[in-house]
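Q: How do we represent a protein-ligand complex in a form that can be generated token by token?
A: Start from the inputs.
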Amino acid sequence: MDPTPVRMDLGRLIERAEGDFAGEDAAQLRQDFTRFMMRYKFGMEEIVTKLSILRDEFTHLHENNPIENVSSRLKNPDSIIEKMARKGTDPTFVSIEKTITDIAGVRVTCSFVSDVYTLFDLLTGQSDVHIVDVRDYIATPKSNGYRSLHALIEVPVFLSDGQVPVLVEVQLRTIAMDFWASLEHKIHYKYQQDVPQSLLDGLRDAAETAGELDATMERLHTEVKSAGELPAELQAELRARNDVGPDDGFVERLRRLGT
Ligand code: GTP
Ligand code: MG
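Then emit the structure tokens for the protein with guanosine-5'-triphosphate bound:
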């Protein structure tokens, strides 16, 4: 982590602080804050690894892949302070942990809505993953049209002095939902609170169109799947792209070992 922004923000954290942070020495607080953030980084990496394993396994064994893209980000210290002010969070690590639940964020895009739910089940079904909260904005979109499946999950991280549970916010969505959300985000960023009504209406229409596109793509996908297996050459190509397995010669030698 780049130390400069942490130092700057801790200066401000101390200025604003009452209670725990105020009494602390700046160097100590800086170190504590870094350790606090590290845990989120590790938790986020655990989830990214889990998704990467699922993606590789799917490509290898099932010749399809429910994941288009995985991205992750740690909330920067400035945004944490801004959100603490907005939410009236006490300046203690315990309060930050409780109220700012998106310090570690992972976003997964899939081609199809069914893949979104498949991945959610596969990830949250793992024995070390604990679901804290689920918000299904696909089943119930927000009034502005926003759709995505949000899961707040807890994953254990093993540190030198023991195991700690870490909260990670996972957003799962289709490419169409992601396309919409990134444009909507840009518009809000540009206009701040004053987005013209015509744009808001346009966004709601676009969200509906994106929803229809998802439904059509899902239907076509189901039709293709039920039409039978992929041609042999395509199967071989897909397998080769992700192959960690032995070649034919090796398999033959392995077979002969058994005789
Ligand atoms: P914050 O919005 O982070 O304070 O949390 P919340 O308690 O409102 O949770 P929610 O599940 O509504 O949103 C969490 C995150 O989802 C946001 O930080 C965004 O990344 C994303 N999100 C939620 N609503 C919208 C939306 O209307 N548009 C876009 N572009 N993203 C959204
Ligand atoms: Mg919100």
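The chain has ten helices and five strands. Confidence is low (pLDDT under 50) at residues 1-8, 14-19.
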